[in-house]
């Protein structure tokens, strides 16, 4: 993995240089179409750079951070919006850190013992899943689906944790909140809007949800504007997941199953909202949690996971994790 690590460093150094350009040169242009033209080269780079990497465990975070989050921040910045256009202006180091990663100024609180214990448990759980996956030929496919789902959730949480440690040490900032106990969600609104991958929620709200709602409200009324904003947000999320899957599957032709997954959930969230506004009685909390997680799990098995499994992405990621663990172990033995 040494050559791939070297390429990984080059990709991120290029990204840093692009953000320096955006602040020092493009940032001097007033927000609007002219600034948009100035930042488009960086947007193109952030789309192209992840495709230089072939290792999933390095490329997946890169395509997520650069291809999605950083580009949406740059598009907001082009029109004088978002955190990159904050007043007073961010320092160069802050601009680069906020532009490339989902970070915020540190509140000075160190990681609590509870959080550290949770990360240890998650690491043990991920190790157990990786070990079980080596016996996948003896495991029922439905059980493997559950294991793949657990792997994605654990890898996301641990990826954010590693990023948080690195960012805190390098620039004294901390990661934005990522998850808020999604297993306690009592509705799809609660799951997607307040508990699951809050970093994505935080970037989609100012870049898609609020603009669509503001634009459509004068013409369609507040009720339809809300529905349009929700559907547009889920549609964009689906398309960005298709982009990530396009990278993960080595440029395989999209099947649009992932987009259908998010559009289905968008329609269901709109329906939930209408039912709540109509006074429909809610299920008890326990039943709401089971039905919410059950719906997410079943629709995920139907529409979200097939591409990852059929193209061998999940298996490749697991094998790379095992290779990385062996690599670190061997290096530690040499030291």
Summary tags:
335 residues, globular, mainly alpha, 3 domains, two-stranded antiparallel ribbon
Brief summary of the model shown:
The protein is 75% helix and 2% strand. With 335 residues, it is mostly helical.
Counting DSSP H or I runs of 4 or more residues, the number of helices is 12
Can you tell me the residue ranges where pLDDT is under 50 for at least 5 consecutive residues? Answer: none
Strand content: under 5%
| N-to-C series of helices and strands | HHHHEHHEHHHHHH
- Structural class by secondary-structure content: mainly alpha
How helical, in percent, are the residues? over 70%
Average pLDDT, to the nearest integer? 85
The rounded distance between the terminal residues' Cα atoms is 18 Å
Shape: globular
Strand order of the largest sheet: 1-2
Instruction: Give the count of structural domains.
Output: 3
Number of strands: 2
Q: Major sheet, described briefly?
A: 2 strands, antiparallel
The Cα radius of gyration reads 21 Å
Structural features, described:
The chain is mainly α and 335 residues long. The protein has three domains: 2-101; 112-178; 179-335, no CATH class. It is built from twelve helices and two strands. A two-stranded antiparallel sheet has the order 1-2. The radius of gyration is 21 Å and the shape is globular.
Q: What's the helix and strand layout?
A:
Layout: H1 2-24, H2 33-48, H3 56-78, H4 92-100, E1 103-105, H5 113-133, H6 141-171, E2 173-175, H7 188-195, H8 198-220, H9 222-248, H10 257-277, H11 285-310, H12 313-334
Antiparallel strand pairs: 1-2
Helix pairs in contact: 1-2, 1-3, 1-4, 2-3, 3-8, 3-9, 5-6, 8-9, 9-10, 10-11
